[in-house]
Every structure is written in C-alpha cells, then in structure tokens.
Specification:
The protein is of the alpha+beta class and 79 residues long. Helix content is 46%, strand content 11%. Helix 1 packs across helix 2.
Length: 79
C-alpha cells in the first residue's frame, strides 16, 4: 500500500536532526516498502512541486539545486 508521498517527506524531515536531509529512496521505501522503486518517480515530481512552492529544498552535493533543471542524485531538506 502506497502512502501519500508528501506526508512521508515531511514526516521523515521532521524526524531528521535539524539541518539534515533525506534521500528520495528513504521516502519511497517509507511510502511503499514492497514496491518502492515504482514510487521513485512520484517522489521526484512531488519534490519538484514542493521546491517550487519553497516548502522544501532539493540539494545536489550539499548545495541547493534548481528544481526545474537538476539532474542525477539529489536529497531533500527543509528550507
């Protein structure tokens, strides 16, 4: 059963130490432990939408990334 990705993102970020980030894989595994790989595209699209609303920050190599043009491995943290 897949949980709401946005809720899972904010639950994991709330549980993380201040200033720390979470990976998309962590979010996907928490949302659907059995079929987490199928949830990864939804995690990415939800993350982009939340970053555009400035509710979270997408980082690459520890630095904020543009939600409209980033590629590759990324992490999520609170603003």
């Amino acid at each position: 059963m897949t949980r709401n990705v946005e809720e899972v993102i904010f639950e994991l970020l709330a549980a993380a130490p201040a200033g720390k980030s979470v990976s998309p894989e962590e979010v996907a595994r928490a949302a659907d432990p059995e079929a987490w790989r199928r949830v990864l595209p939804q995690v990415r699209s939800t993350s982009i939408g939340l970053a555009r609303q400035e509710r979270l920050v997408i980082t690459r190599h520890g630095k904020p990334a543009d939600p409209d043009s980033f590629k590759g491995v990324y992490r999520l943290r609170l603003p």
